[in-house]
Design a protein that fits this description.
Strand content: 5-15%
Number of domains: 1
CATH class: Alpha Beta
Strand order of the largest sheet: 2-1-3-4-5
Helix content: 40-55%
Distance between the termini: 44 Å
Low-confidence stretches: none
Number of strands: 5
CATH superfamily: Response regulator
Number of helices: 6
């Protein structure tokens, strides 16, 4: 696996992790989903520290998805830490939270989150969200088909 093949999910609810893994499989996301239980573990993963020191086994992610309300360190703590690390300037961060609070959405945006989505109540809606993730952040752009243009060139 390479960093282009990995998505890091920071989520403390085991049921939500299982639903997310199932949605990833259903949508056919061609990425490894690595799940950690809180913001502290996510930071350790990104640092390559402790049990995450083997980058062959724990490659850097191409996308970070985080819940906000977690034990130890929150999603806000994680976003704030990522924002201070220049090596992660290009890492897209998505918040998937049960919070409907505008202040949470605003703070997540201020801390660099590219999107803030409320956790859906139904699995089908989660599958739809994963489809959006795949489209926007997990599928490389396809090269333009230049054959029609090349055929018209002298």
């Amino acid at each position: 696996m390479t960093e282009h093949d990995t998505v890091l999910l920071a989520e403390d609810d085991e049921n939500d992790v299982l639903l997310f893994q199932t949605a990833f499989k259903k949508v056919g996301v061609p990425k490894l989903l690595v799940c950690v239980p809180d913001g502290e573990d996510a930071i350790e993963y990104l640092k390559g520290a402790g049990i995450y020191s083997n980058r062959m086994e724990y490659p850097l992610p191409c996308l970070l998805i985080t819940d906000l309300k977690m034990v130890k360190r929150t999603g806000f703590d994680l976003l704030e830490w990522v924002q201070t690390q220049t090596q992660f300037n290009g890492l897209p961060a998505i918040v998937l939270s049960s919070s409907l609070e505008e202040s949470d959405k605003r703070r997540a945006s201020e801390l660099g989150a590219q999107a803030y989505w409320v956790k859906p109540a139904h699995f089908e809606d989660l599958v739809e969200l994963v489809c959006l993730l795949k489209e926007k952040w997990l599928t490389p752009p396809q090269p333009a088909d230049l054959s029609s243009i090349q055929n018209r060139l002298p």
